[in-house]
Q: What sequence folds into this?
């Protein structure tokens, strides 16, 4: 098709790949609020954080002024095996939708873990190895983060202990086996190995677990074993920093062809892929160099940005992690059992929250069946079976393209396609069988969960 001047897939050459991560906080005049120690309600110190997290990662977490961090050569080498990820021009989707809009997506599903999470997993494993640790502990809900971390740990020969929410452990045996193939030890949570796990099992016999509880177990496991630290796959500033590789590559690829997007869209669970994708664009806005429409998409069943409050809250149900100021539904909020496991988090990255609060970004919430309708439509046209999480962004990108069809506007839309959905076929089965429902929490439910906030909102 000679009429296409932009290739279907825009790849970067190795020498064009970013060599540094970008820390968008450096360009924010008003910074995200500091993490607080839950006991003293004072900003956490590097020393306090270092008991739980790797030292170098603590430095990155607390640094709000350094704009660029060199990506260590060992990490660049690993990135080179599966990056750059392609920026795809969705010609087929455009044609099918009959839209004048130009649609691009940045596809992060081209690695065995099947999602963007590997970008941060490899960085976190690298710094753990550098520090001379024996291993790391973590939790996983849907399983994507645990898979990515297992791959990263096996690459650097680190022990990897994953607490997997019991219902996922049972429902997603293949995710579990991928992790074990990469050498990780996977324990269903709540387990009988930690104090918090035993307590939960005693109080709620037969419980199938929750992400909040698995976090508390993983933190306990890290702090009670010599040579171990805890790692987290989203929400934290360090994770957004590593994920900025997504946005930087996207920007370089677009610039190469002189393309300026009108809107950049990403799904938001803890905010890491979205934050990483939009960071370079938000940076230009913050420096007054350009204007973009940045859109976060979240599930209507777990609407932290669109219906939550911007306050300090607990990051985990066990209340062991630092307090973070963020858009939250309350740490006791239990989202309905939606199929986008990676988006079922009560809070949001503090950076994404602050950008949203400053009006640099918008947020939309979408219902599950509309998301799967878009997922199926996309799979049939573009050939990629998307993850349910990613399909939130597809939904809004398609809606925007359809709006352009009505108005005749020729907007350029870029969205993040964070991963593939091969381990989510149970969800697709539900959709195909017509059994999928939409659950939207009532105002009362949200108000109730927000009653259990920490008492520190005067900070
Ligand atoms: C984990 C995950 C997400 C959501 O996490 P963020 O930190 O918000 O990016 C989105 N898509 C996929 C495929 C995931 O695995």
A:
């Amino acid at each position: 098709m000679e009429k296409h001047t932009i290739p279907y897939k825009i790849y970067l050459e190795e020498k064009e790949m970013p060599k540094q991560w970008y820390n968008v906080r450096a360009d924010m005049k008003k910074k995200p609020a500091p993490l607080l120690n839950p006991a003293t309600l004072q900003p956490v110190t590097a020393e306090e954080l270092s008991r739980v997290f790797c030292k170098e990662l603590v430095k990155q977490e607390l640094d709000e002024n350094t704009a660029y961090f060199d990506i260590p050569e060992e990490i660049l080498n690993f990135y080179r095996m599966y990056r750059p990820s392609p920026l795809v021009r969705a010609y087929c989707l455009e044609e099918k939708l009959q839209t004048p809009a130009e649609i691009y997506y940045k596809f992060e599903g081209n690695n065995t873990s099947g999602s963007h999470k590997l970008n941060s997993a490899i960085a976190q494993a690298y710094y753990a190895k550098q520090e001379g640790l024996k291993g790391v502990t973590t939790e996983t809900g849907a399983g994507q983060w645990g898979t990515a971390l297992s791959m990263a740990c096996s690459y650097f020969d680190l022990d990897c202990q994953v607490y997997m929410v019991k219902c996922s452990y049972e429902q997603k045996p293949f995710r579990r086996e991928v992790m074990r193939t990469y050498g990780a030890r996977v324990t269903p949570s709540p387990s009988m190995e930690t104090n918090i796990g035993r307590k939960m099992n005693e109080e709620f016999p037969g419980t199938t677990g929750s992400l909040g509880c698995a976090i508390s177990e993983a933190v306990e496991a890290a702090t009670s074993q010599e040579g171990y630290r805890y790692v987290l796959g989203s929400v934290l500033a360090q994770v957004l920093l590593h994920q900025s590789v997504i946005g930087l590559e996207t920007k370089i690829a677009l610039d190469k062809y002189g393309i300026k997007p009108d809107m950049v869209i990403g799904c938001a669970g803890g905010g890491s892929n979205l934050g990483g994708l939009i960071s370079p664009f938000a940076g230009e806005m913050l420096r007054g160099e350009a204007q973009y429409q940045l859109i976060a998409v979240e599930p209507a069943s777990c609407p932290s940005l669109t219906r939550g409050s911007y306050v300090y809250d607990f990051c985990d149900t066990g209340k062991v992690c630092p307090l973070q100021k963020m858009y939250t539904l309350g740490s006791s909020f239990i989202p309905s059992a939606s199929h986008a496991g990676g988006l079922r988090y009560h809070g949001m990255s503090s950076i994404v929250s602050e950008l949203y609060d400053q009006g640099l970004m918008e947020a939309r919430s979408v219902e599950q069946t509309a998301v799967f309708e878009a997922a199926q439509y996309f799979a049939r046209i573009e050939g990629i079976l998307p993850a349910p999480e990613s399909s939130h962004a597809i939904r809004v990108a398609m809606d925007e393209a359809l709006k352009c069809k009505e108005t005749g506007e020729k907007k350029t839309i870029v969205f993040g396609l964070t991963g593939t959905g091969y381990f989510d076929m149970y969800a697709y089965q539900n959709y195909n069988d017509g059994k999928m429902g939409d659950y939207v929490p009532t105002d009362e439910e949200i108000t109730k969960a927000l009653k259990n906030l920490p008492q520190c909102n005067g900070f």
The longest helix spans residues 237-256. DSSP finds 18 helices and 15 strands in the chain. The mean pLDDT is 94.
